[in-house]
Amino acid sequence: MSARKAAVLVAGSWGTALASVLADNEFDVNIWTRNAAQADEINRDRRNLKYTDDAELSPRIAATVSMEEALRGAEAVLFVAPSAVMREVARQAAPYLSPESVVIHATKGFEPETMKRMSVVLAEELTGVDPASVVVLSGPSHAEEVIRRCPTTVVVAAGELTAAERAQDVLINSYFRVYTNPDAIGVEVGGALKNIIALGAGLSDGLGFGDNAKAALLTRGLAEIARLGVTMGGHALTFAGLSGVGDLVVTCTSRHSRNWRAGYMLGQGKPLDDVLRTMGMVVEGVKTTKAAHALARQYEVSMPITDQLYEVLFAGKEPQVAVGHLMGRVRTHEIEEIAGASGVKWTF
Predict the structure, then answer these.
(1) What tens digit of pLDDT does each residue of 331-347 get?
(2) Confidence class of residue 236 from pLDDT cuts 50, 70 and 90?
(3) N or C: which terminal CB in the chain sees fewer CB atoms within 10 Å?
(4) Which residues form the Glycerol-3-phosphate dehydrogenase NAD-dependent N-terminal domain (predicted)?
């Protein structure tokens, strides 16, 4: 009996961690990269040193620079490309993707130029795939811990429940627990927007503002995420779940988080360009801040934390001045009513 096959596009830290989950689930995994040296390192040394330090990779994982080879016979295809290049990767994959494959993406961000969600980008490029069957994977899940098989719980969401259940079956195991959710929009928006608040949490820590400030930032940040997410069509309860509160907590409180680390360096006075060079990997929260700032205006949603972070990142505002503007806003209620895309009112 031939082994089940899966493909992961691309070979960053999260893609490599998910490839390890699939390998533990007895899949033969082709992981695609455009970097031939990286592919050689994975195949020869069983390591992906830049992204997963010294973690030893399963012999079931093979790296390739050929998209056709990566997708050949794949039952499941995981797109884990940075948001800025997701469309390009999907376009390259489209000619070789089987209509029988379950398509999953695990990228937390918006396309920078269009502000589109990743599932929308995939549906536009993978024309043979039903948009409702594109699965979103999100939740509190540092790659560094997943690859060490630390207990992790995530959520998969799709408009078509059977697609989410297929993804659940492919990924779930003894250390990687997977729930399903029908709210793909909410799961996707929550996963993307929490990176903005993580930048703010790191910045707050870098400024030495303490736990009171960070707790307030997470709480009011969640309110912003929910306001925009519900207005875009997500369900309120999704933001109280794994892709909302869960992902927000883990990303804002851990040094594993690239967004937290970037914010921390900004809080210590380092310029953004220097921070991004030091990181050496994609910091999704920076581009997501720009996208969310535009989306807030498009949907006429109040997002004061996002607005101030945008000013710090892209308009040269001093972080202390931004905090002063947040603290000096006119008094308001904590609990408010808004109408979501369905027209049904809810409170938070």
Answers:
(1) 888 876 555 544 544 44
(2) very high
(3) N
(4) 6-160
User: pLDDT tens for residues 280-304?
Assistant: 888 899 999 999 999 999 999 999 9
Binding site, residues? 13-14, 34, 51, 108, 139, 141, 143, 194, 247, 257-259, 282, 284
CATH assignment, 191-347:
1.10.1040.10
pLDDT band at 2 (very low <50, low <70, confident <90, very high): confident
Whole-Å CA distances, 14 to 8, 52, 282: 10, 9, 12
- Residue 1 is predicted with a pLDDT of 58
Residues belonging to the active site: 194
Mean pLDDT of the chain: 93
- Give the residue extent of every domain in the chain: 4-182, 191-347
What are the binding residues for substrate?
A: 108, 258-259
- Mark the binding-site residues for NADPH, compressed into ranges: 13-14, 34, 51, 108, 143, 258, 282, 284
